Structure to design on (395 residues):
């Protein structure tokens, strides 16, 4: 329940009603978060604003959106301590108003240092849906004068509207994902049921039995990959994909991934090359997630190749950046479709329907790389081949 400290003028009600309608009509979560963030700044006349998601089960508060895209790239998925101002809001469900952060020891200047911003004052309020705090909306530095009680009231009303809109958008995305998932399940399940029926015949040879067993394994793998992809997307879209960074040797990891994919490339008679600088530095990143990206891209380079083609994995340092190229001489992608690569469920029109896939892999890869403040770029020529390039900051 929101406790207002001021009576809200009628024109503010009208403005807030317009905002409510505006938010209710946006189902894309990212667009919605950016809109809420922009409205928070506009309503309170602030210099900066951020939305943080709160995961009550993990007691974790992470940045989801900020007003400055460069800062956002740095803060994406960064955790805020629970004894910070935002952390206190998430835990107590109460708004906080700090007119001078230099006099408040809950203020966490690590973020200011990271994004080179100078916070003077903060107002933060909880976003509550179904009696649970789902996040915190925080505005910084009033452009003129000081934040006042009326600003805090407006922020709280916006938070209430935002929480409902975010929940709606999440539900919609879950529904959309679930219906796609169920649709995707049908192919491997039909295949399994057909193989099962064929296996019932008494007169099948041992060779056929082996073939059916390997088909079953293939379909089970497909079901496992499907579930993993959908789970990753669901976590990503709800802001729950968290990184666990460690320091590790990237050259070892790339070689490990190449070794793992060797047999599959050999099956397709592909020429395999590695040009990995042995002196690559260690990097700080989530090893399992980077491994997932490398395997996905190498796997695509094999899957969308042609018999007798080649796949090359290169890695080198380029200035302050680690650059990994995965180049293939496969089917390529039509030029006009390249911008769509990495969008949820997108598969290029030149992919034969017999090649299995969900169109989620690249979307997950891009998200993982961007969460590491890196970049995934693609060059491709139809019928000639593609190069997928990962760039990661060396820290
Ligand atoms: P999937 O392979 O499951 O379809 P991805 O998200 O990994 O999904 O890839 C999306 C689409 O991008 C593929 O369906 C394909 O059209 C295209 N693609 C990805 N990698 C390559 C590649 N190496 N060569 C040609 N097309 C590719």
């Amino acid at each position: 329940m929101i406790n207002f400290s001021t009576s809200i003028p009628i024109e503010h009600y009208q403005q807030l009603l317009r905002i409510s309608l505006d938010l209710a009509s946006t189902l894309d979560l990212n667009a919605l978060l950016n809109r809420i963030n922009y409205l928070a700044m506009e309503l309170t006349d602030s210099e900066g604003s951020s939305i943080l998601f709160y995961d009550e089960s993990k007691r974790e508060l992470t940045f989801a959106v900020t007003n400055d895209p460069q800062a956002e790239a740095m803060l994406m998925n960064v955790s805020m301590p629970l004894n910070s101002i935002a952390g206190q809001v998430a835990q107590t469900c109460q708004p906080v108003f700090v007119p001078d952060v230099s006099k408040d020891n809950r203020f966490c200047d690590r973020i200011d240092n990271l994004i080179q911003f100078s916070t003077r004052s903060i107002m933060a309020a909880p976003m509550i849906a179904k009696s649970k705090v789902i996040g915190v909306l925080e505005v910084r530095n009033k452009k003129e004068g000081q934040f006042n009680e009326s600003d805090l009231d407006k922020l709280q009303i916006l938070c209430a509207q935002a929480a409902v809109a975010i929940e709606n958008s999440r539900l919609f995305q879950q529904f959309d994902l679930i219906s796609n998932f169920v649709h995707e399940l049908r192919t491997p399940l039909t295949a399994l049921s057909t193989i099962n029926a064929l296996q019932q015949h008494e007169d099948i040879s041992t060779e056929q039995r082996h073939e059916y067993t390997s088909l079953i394994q293939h379909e089970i793998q497909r079901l496992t990959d499907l579930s993993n992809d959908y789970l990753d997307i669901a976590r990503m879209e709800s802001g729950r994909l968290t990184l666990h960074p460690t320091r590790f040797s990237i050259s070892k990891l790339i070689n490990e991934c190449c070794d793992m994919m060797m047999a599959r490339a050999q099956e397709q008679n592909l020429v395999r090359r590695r040009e990995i600088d042995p002196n690559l530095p260690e990097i700080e990143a989530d090893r399992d997630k980077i491994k997932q990206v490398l395997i996905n891209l190498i796997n695509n380079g094999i899957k969308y190749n042609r018999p007798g083609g080649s796949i090359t994995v290169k890695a080198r340092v380029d200035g302050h950046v680690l650059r990994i190229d995965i180049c293939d001489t496969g089917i390529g992608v039509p030029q006009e479709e390249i911008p769509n690569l990495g969008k949820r469920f997108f598969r290029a029109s030149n992919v034969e329907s017999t090649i299995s896939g969900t169109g989620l892999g690249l979307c997950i890869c891009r998200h993982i790389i961007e969460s590491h403040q890196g970049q995934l770029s693609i060059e491709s020529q139809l019928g000639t081949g593609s190069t997928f390039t990962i760039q990661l900051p060396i820290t």
